[in-house]
Every structure is written in structure tokens, then in C-alpha cells.
Structures
1.
Amino acid sequence: MRLSQSFLPVLKESPAGAEVASHKLMLQAGLIRQTSSGIYAWLPLGNRVLRKIEQIVREEQDRVGQEILMPTIQPADLWKESGRYDAYGPEMLRINDRHGREMLYGPTNEDMVTALFRDDVKSYRELPRMLYHIQWKFRDEVRPRFGVMRGREFLMKDAYSFDLDEAGAKISYYRQLLAYLRTFRRMGIRAVPMQADSGPIGGKLSHEFVVLAPSGESEVFYDGKIEEVDLEREGLSYDDAEALEALFREATGVYARTDETHEERYWDAVPAERQRTGRGIEVGHIFYFGIRYSEAMGLKVSGPDGTMLVPHMGSYGIGVSRLVGAIIEASHDDNGIVWPEAVAPYKVGIVTMRADDADTVAAAERIYAALGEAGVEALYDDRDERGGVKLGGMDLMGLPWQVVIGPRGLKDGVVEVKNRKSGEREQLTIEDAIAKLSA
Ligand code: P5A
């Protein structure tokens, strides 16, 4: 993409009113704009990151479940059936349609998915199942803040599992645990599973996935031993129930809690030299709540001997839009964002130091075309701007690689390739630069 043809409104000054680095950087680098309190429009750069995160989530969820798409608007009746319409409170955006029917903008989908499943599934042979979707949610948060990290409208991946009994439901829970650990690792971050409260979703087994960052909303307490646990278990099959349970025990057996569940008596048992405290951002949350919704909504299937069974369920959320902010919190420096390559909006930024020098422009065009042919996503700053301004913009946007082209280097037949994260610079011939960045 050529910057001269992009909608990429970069702010010169750090925006006022943003409290945390990610919110500031997302506004300054032109990823988002607020349209009302807690509601944001995603501009091209932000949208590309959001879609990359979404795609990683999708690929990992496809290994354990099937994708569906439920609507954002739901009938209130479903929530009355499950018995939580009144209990949910003012966080729910309630709407009346033109016929006066009560509707709502979904804050989550347990009720709807239970009804969908109930209407079509009749036999134990059709279980277990795992369904997920990636859809916008609305929660009228009392204090929307930190940009997309606590928004009112936000993109969530929510999965729902249906099993014949508690033992089966636990395996579904362990599968999602592993899928989550792999998902976050692919995005270049490490999220620690922490024991959680289940809140308005309900149930007795629940874990949050927390990315450590000083600006996080929750205080966290954990045993440093978790850093040594191999959480992603390469090669572990989702069909190996025993190994999944072993992973669950190891990953959740180490003390790791937020301020909501922290208990001094267990904390005191962690050796002092291993006690770690800090702050964290919740990027995912998983729940096992048994027959809470299936029983209330009349979901049952016939068992092998003809008796009726009430399926055990769980739900599993990932804050897709929150992750954009969380990744920035975990990966930025004084000059701007430092995107992990897997979620970067473009892999390479191309900068001409002198847009009025024909050789510089020719070299840049050649690199841009070659990268395009190799399928490498590049953002080419072809504007007639001062070189320094362009370099500052590139650092701010945080693309993993920069190719800087100017008359001085070209005289010696080289361009500069810079790694945004390490700051390392290499002088390479045009061909070598193309080869390196296409690898
Ligand atoms: C699990 C899936 C649920 O809603 N029902 C379906 C369960 N869980 S949750 O913890 O309430 O939300 C799941 C994840 O969504 C993100 N999230 C938010 N992101 C941005 N702004 C918000 N206001 C917001 N609220 C929740 C979090 O990442 C959370 O873990």
C-alpha cells in the first residue's frame, strides 16, 4: 500500500485524555477513532491488526470447534427463559422494536446458543460439540476506559461446549485451555491462566488468561514457577484426554490469581523468592457451568438407554478487540508500537529519504514491486515529506521491518534495513534486502 493513497491519519502530538500507552498510540498512529464513549471506528491500520488477531483466533478455534455466526440483536425472551434477563442489570442495552417487542444488543450468547442447540439436537450421538463465533458485543460499562481495552462495543470470540456429562465437559474445558495458550503464543504474547470468579456467566470452574502489563486493570499474584511450565505443549493432541488433564493440572496447579480471588493463606505457602506481583490485562476467560442453561431452557437429549440427559456446558471468551490494546501494552517503546510479526498491519515499511531524487524513487519502487510479487505486505511511504518525519511515523506505526532508501546509500549501492524491535540496522544491496524481507 502506498501511503500517499492511504487513509492513515497520524497525529503529530500525543493525544490528550488517553491514560495508557496503548490508547495513546492507537489514536496517534491512526488505528482507531472514538465515535461515542467506549465505541470506536477501526481505521485501515487498526482494522488490519484486528483481522489478523481474529484470524489467528479462528485458526486455533477451528482445531477444536466449528464456526457459526449468531446475530448481535437478540430477543429478550431468550434471556427470560434462561432466567437472567432481570439479573443482568444496566450493563445490558435494551431496545424495543417498532412492534414494541423487547430486544437487546447481545453482551454474550449462552442463552441463544443453548436454544439453537436444543431445537436441533435430540440424541446423545450428536454430542460432544463445540461451536464458536466471532461477533460484536455490547456492554454498557459504567466506566469505559483505556480505549478498546474496556469498550462498550467490542469484538469477542465466544465458544460454547455441549457434553453428555461433567467428565466430558472438563475435557472440552482442557481443550480450550490448550487452544488459548497456543492462540496467545502465536500472537507473540504470553497469557497466564489464573483462577477466576465466574460472575454473571455462572458456574464453579473458571479461569482468566492474563497478560502481564503495568497498566493492567487487575492486580495479579503468581508463583514464578509458572514461567517454567511448557504451556503450549507442541505435539500434544486434542484427542489425548489424559495429557490434556495433565496440562490442566500443571498449568493451573501453580498459584496464580487476580485481586478478585487472591487468598493470603495460599499465597503464604508460595516460597518468598518465587512470589511475583504485578498488574495484568484479562484477554480471555473460560467457564464450566454444568447444566445452568441447559436445564433452565429445556435442552435434553435421549441417552443410550432411552433416558433423557441434560447436557453439561461451558463457554469460552477471547477479547479480540481488547487484544489489540493488550499486545501494544506488552510491546511498545518510547518511539511507538512494536508489533509482533504475526499481528503487524504490514511486515515492511519502505521509506524514501528524498522523494525528489529519481534514483531513490526508482529503488523504492523496485523494492515495493518485488515485495508485492513475493506476497510480502509492505507499506510504502512515497509522500513528499521530510525523511525524518517519515522515519518517526514508521517507528510510531511499529512495522517489524523498515527499508530506508536515500541517495547517500545508493551511491554505495546499498539501502538500510532496520529491525524495529532490536533497532539493528544492516546495509544491504537492493537484491539482498528483497531476499531478506521475502524470506
Ligand atoms: C465467555 C464467552 C463471557 O462473556 N460468555 C461467552 C463468557 N466472558 S467474559 O469474561 O465476560 O468476556 C470474555 C472476554 O471478553 C473481553 N471483554 C471485553 N473487551 C473489551 N471491552 C469490554 N468491555 C470487555 N468485556 C469483556 C475480555 O477479554 C474477556 O476475557
Note: The CA atoms of residues 50 and 324 lie 7 Å apart.
2.
Amino acid sequence: MPDPRIELFEGDITTLAVDAIVNAANPTLLGGGGVDGAIHRAAGPGLRAECATLGGCRTGEAKITKGYNLPARHVIHTVGPVWRGGGHGEAEALAACYRHSLALAIEHRLASIAFPGISTGVYGYPPEEAARIAVAEVERFLTGDTSLERVIFVCFGRQATEIYRGVLSDSIHSR
Ligand code: APR
């Protein structure tokens, strides 16, 4: 069985009242399009002001800020890899995004965290492969953790939901 703490949510991550939503950012942390743009729009100018003090973020790393006008208490900003065909360490970098975001959540004693499909938009990561990495990394992390209560994969549309449903059901049969 996949860990019962893992949930799927189809919709807009900026609407979730959780301890942290994860932002698929770029190395400047100063905002962009996609989910990055949606989070900054919903959070308001305070978010960019705090991000400007963080000195950017390397691919695979994660940094935490307050949530400002978002219903979420915090935003964990992580920078996914740009897909360049799969031979440039993309899988490990993507896994590191999930691992470092979860580690930050634990460090800040957060109980609930929601992830978008990191790198599967502008950065071009094949969504099914990305979902497999996301689920595997979160399941691995949760086997060693008891402080997290909810990890939500946010699917921005039906296709993404079907992909995550499939990956989670595969993980049942692979146990
Ligand atoms: N809620 C949840 N998911 C969303 C939302 C939203 N409001 N908006 C977009 N998404 C989904 C996209 O459908 C995609 O599956 O988030 C996933 C990540 O796509 P992007 O936002 O394009 O992020 P990414 O592929 O990691 O590219 C990052 O894009 O926005 C810029 O500044 C960002 O340069 C960085 C790059």
C-alpha cells in the first residue's frame, strides 16, 4: 500500500491551507510563470521581498519563506532540473528537490506539505517519469519519518491526476 499519508489533489496549489506549499521556482527565486507566478500573485509582494534576501537557490536545493497572503503558512521554494534528454543528472536533481523540501518541512516541524509537479511544465520533464521519481522519493522519506502527517501531490488538471493515480497504484503492486 502507498503510505496513507500521501494524498492527491486536483486543482490550484495556492488554494491549499497546509503548513507549506512547494514552489517550482527558478534559481533567482524572484518569480516567474507557471506555478511560480501563481504563488507569487496569491502571496503578494511580501513573498518576493523575502525571496530577495535569500541569495537565490541552486537546482535540487530548497529554501523556506513565510506564506504571506496565501492560506499556506509557508512556501518551500525548490529549483527543479531543466529536462535535457535524461543524461545530465536530471533524475537525481529532481529527487533531491523532493528530499530537500521534505527535510526542510521536518526541520521546521511542519505536518503538511503540498507539491506541484516540479519541472513538468516550462522545464519540460516528462510527467510520468517525474511522477515516479516524486512518489518514490516521498515514500522513501516517509518510511523513516513519523512527524509528517500529510504529503499532497497537486495535479493541475485531469491528465496529471491520471498519471499520479497510475504511479500510486503501481506502487501498491510493487510492494
Ligand atoms: N497549481 C498547481 N500546479 C500548477 C499551477 C497551480 N496554480 N500552475 C501550474 N502548475 C503545474 C504545471 O501544470 C506543471 O505541471 O506546475 C507544474 C510545474 O510547471 P511550471 O510552473 O512551469 O514549473 P517548472 O516546469 O518547474 O519550470 C520552472 O518556470 O515559472 C517558471 O520561474 C519558474 O523558471 C521557472 C520555471
Note: Residues 19 and 110 are 6 Å apart (CA to CA).
